[in-house]
Amino acid sequence: MTPPRTLLDKIWDAHVVLDLSDGWSLIHVDRHLLHDLSGPPALMDLRKRDLPVHNPELTFATPDHIVSSRPGRVDDTFPAGARLVAGLRLLTAAAGIRLFDLGGEGQGIVHVIAPEMGLTLPGATQICGDSHTCTNGGLGALAFGVGTSESAHALATQTLRMRKPRNMRVRIEGSLGSCVTAKDLALHLLRTLGTTAGVEHSIEFAGSTVRALEVEERLTLCNLAVEMGARSALIAPDEAVFAYLRGRRFAPTGAAFDAAIAYWRTLASDEDAVFDRDIAIDAADVVPTISWGTSPDQSMPIDGLVPGPADAPLGTLEDLAASLDYMGLTAGQPIAGEPVDWVFIGSCANSRISDLRAAARVVDGRSVAPGVQAWVVPGSMAVRREAEAEGLDRLFTDAGFQWREPGCSMCVAANGEQVPPGARSVSTSNRNFVGRQGPRARTHLASPAMAAAAAVTGRITDVRTL
Amino acid sequence: MFAPFTRLSSRAAVLPQANIDTDVIIRIERLTAGDSARIGDYALEALRYREDGSENPEFPLNQPRWRDAQILIAGANFGCGSSREPAVTALMAMGLRCIIAESFGDIFYANCFQNGMLPIRFSAENVAALVADAEASSSEFVVDLHRCSITTAAGCEVVFTIDPQRREALLSGLDDIGLTLRHAETITAWQQADRTRRPWIWMADTREIAA
Ligand code: SF4
């Protein structure tokens, strides 16, 4: 009898090309995504070594990080990005790698386009020189971010030298309350488990709450796993995922699709599989959640009071004081009601069509509050087109939002699009680090509905009270 | 491809703040600017410099005793956040060769080994003891990768554990790509078999061309 295995064990075992001893394996990479920032240096590394790309047909590229999101943008709307985009274009063309280029179908944030086009597949391994590659685990792919050197290694060999991560399960049971989204759940997990809970682990999200999430919500949940320290996250693929994939641009078709589904059905963790860490979470405890500090675990219920020294675990007092100071908040104050200057709806955490619809439902019939700059940056060309077909672009622009071109934009501010120093921003992205949205920018992470609520009221607002 | 790491003597600077992320280590627009010669000047800039651009005298690595430190004792979860590999090379350009912390961001940790930086994980108690030593004395620490030991300024020796293959690679400056390419035939054979086993993986790029 074979011992019970987890979802991670099964995917891992199916990709071991060679046992390298001491716990190391050579793992096959099924999908490799490149973007404008990490792609060119990895491809340059190969060029310098005079090595070919091993499997260009398993490699895909798109510019997203350093492209302008300004409506009607062209290559050099953000001149500093033009050089890297040109490099990506040149190097991918030379290597025979498919590029989803600016202005064309398919361009967008790399973790938005991969699932959307059916490049991400259950049970497959997927990498990208980007830490939020874990997003793709929402479809059941073992996906993780890599550095430039590992990306170059995969380009040259289509493999990675890796140690298997440890198994961790976060089981969430029960139904989520009204206005509680996958983003609130992720921020709640961060607040409860901290930023290092998943270090050296792959997190499988399981339980009735997770089963009930729409596929796009699963992508959001897995997106924030890296903030919990995990390089990869997984959700067992099920009928919802198979239905989602059917007919997507690069998804398999016909008999191959049927064969794939038959295999994907076998991937769920065995009943009695043992996890190195196993954590239970009650969905009833999750409320709309927003970050107050400079690390995503510094999050709190929207109707709560900003934590103070009394709430700080020993040894973190200085960090807590530094976070409060940076954010311009006082311990014990309510977070709701704090005036905001910027609202950003976008990023690989929350820029898919369901996110834009959720924001639009809140905005409908209201306008952006005076003095607030509010942006919607769709995650991909496909999302943008779909939203426009539904009239969401008009709804947003009529309310006073800017409707922009797909890319990472203000999530990381690599493209010059920054929140000004000292300004307070409610953002649907995934990182509130010091300076992440621009030097001295103050970022609060929240769901699209809460970001929309902040935009129309001009304050941090409990969306349930609107 | 990097200079092998064997033994290092240097003072050890202390940066106790937890969750120092890769955005703080190197801002992303410093990477787009293509100004790699100055990357060391930009490392940790939000902490190192004041708003007017002058040095922040409070920042540990700006203090005379630690200015040339090659060892950093950092807070937990050092290097969390993005996968950007220049976070490692920026710290190396600043002069660091070894970082000691209770925990690291996983991708940052892996990236260290690709560049010849030695990251050492220690329990919270061990880190606290090293911090006390580093702060009390101005003498040097010795990190010896052959022996997997750190001798502190006060002369105490502590032993650390490190994955044997990673240790070997650091000691000899081994190149991962070169090592793996020795298995090129095994990889090709695996892929051949996989085309039959999982045909759907191999269809993506032919779909549109065939259609
Ligand atoms: S949207 Fe933000 S988090 Fe996502 S890939 Fe782009 S920069 Fe990274």
Summarize the structure.
The complex is a heterodimer of chains A (466) and B (211). Chain A is 31% helix and 18% strand.
**From the alpha-carbon coordinates, what is the Rg of chain A to the nearest angstrom?**
21 Å
Q: How many independent structural domains of chain A?
A: 3
Q: Helix share of residues of chain B?
A: 25-40%
Mean pLDDT of chain B: 92
Name the helix and strand elements of chain B from N-terminus to C-terminus, one letter apiece: EEHHHHEHEHEHEEEHHHH
- Classify the fold: give the CATH topology of the largest domain in chain B: Aconitase, domain 4
Termini gap of chain A = 57 Å
Most extensive interface between two protein chains, with residue counts: A-B, 80 and 60 residues
Regions with little confidence, pLDDT below 50 for 5+ residues of chain B: none
State the name of the first-level CATH class of the largest domain in chain B. Answer: Alpha Beta
Whole-number tally of structural domains of chain B: 2
Looking at the overall shape, the CATH architecture of the largest domain in chain A is: 2-Layer Sandwich
Strand tally of chain A: 19
- Fourth-tier CATH superfamily name of the largest domain in chain A: Aconitase, domain 3
Quantity of strands of chain B, as a count:
8
Count of alpha/pi helices of chain A: 15
Distance between the ends of chain B: 43 Å
